[in-house]
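Researcher: I'd like a structural prediction for the single chain below. Treat it as a standalone chain; there are no partners to consider.
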Amino acid sequence: MTEAITNIIVTRFPDWARSEAAQPITFKIKPQDLVAACSFLHTDSSLYFDQLSNVTGIDNGPQANTVEVIYHLYSIPFHHALALKVVLPREIPEVASVSGIWKSANWFEREVFDMFGVVFTSHPDLRRILMPADWEGYPLRKDYQHQETYRDIQVKY
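Model: Treating it as a single chain, here is the predicted structure.
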C-alpha cells in the first residue's frame, strides 16, 4: 500500500521531496503548497486522509535558522498514514492554516503557535492555548530564556 500511495502523490506532486527513511511516509513540501496539497489528500477518493492526527513543530535552532511544522495524516477507511513537513524561516515562521479542511487543526495549530511562534494565516482563533495570554516568548524555541527559575517559584498550599 505504501508504494501505491507514493505513486499517486508523486504523480500529482512531482516536486515533493520524499524522506526515504521516515515512517510514516513523509514528504517535504513548500509552505505555499500546503492548503492545496491537504485539500487534495483529504478529498481524493483513492487516498482520503480524513483525519489530521497531529500537528507539531520543531525548532532547528538559530544556526539552521528554520522551524519545521509537521502534519500527521491518517486515512481511517484505508488504514494508511502520511506526514507532510514544511520548513519555515525562524524570523517569520508563517504558513496557511488547514483548519478549513480538518477541524482538529484549530487546536493543534494553536499549540504550535503558542510553543514555537508559528503564525497560521487565516486561522479562525489564533491565540495562546497552553500558556497564559500575557506570556512573552515561545517556550519550545531553542533560544527561549525565561527569567523565572524553579527556585523563584513559591508553592502555596
